[in-house]
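Recall the central idea of this unit: under ordinary conditions, the amino acid sequence of a chain determines the structure it adopts. In this exercise we apply that idea directly, starting from the sequence alone.
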Amino acid sequence: MHSIELDRTDRRLLDVLQEHGRASNLELAEAINLSPAQTLRRHRRLEESGIIKRYEARLDGTMLGFGVVAFIHVTMERGHIRDLSKFKGLVTELAQIQECFSVTGDIDYVLKVVARDLKSLSDFLLDTLMRIPGVSGVRSSVCLDEIKCTSAMPMDL
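Accordingly, the structure predicted from this sequence is:
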């Protein structure tokens, strides 16, 4: 993996895109004080380099009926290394799982899961997650209030 050199203008462009992903090239050019042609060239370079991974709409889960967000700590059985790829494959297929991280410490994975209600979360944990080969334990924490939720990277650090 090679890194791309980012100057101040690139960082400003990325910052604007993180906040306004649907901005037109003209709007972007005005925001970063460049010509539209130069802005488009930089924008394409950032996409082609992989710094911009994708564009997405952030939806309000509560308005869509997903009233529960939970963070699930998953512990895998020791010695079941062959089950890890199966676990990872299933995790990517399960729509309720929004994020999955392999972590250090006494747990193996942390999952961010959405559910319609606590019963749906319980069903998911007992009927789906705990039945995945190699999973030895799960511990869940239900989110009481969302204080901050962003995927924006800090451009000024």
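The two ends are 21 Å apart (CA to CA).
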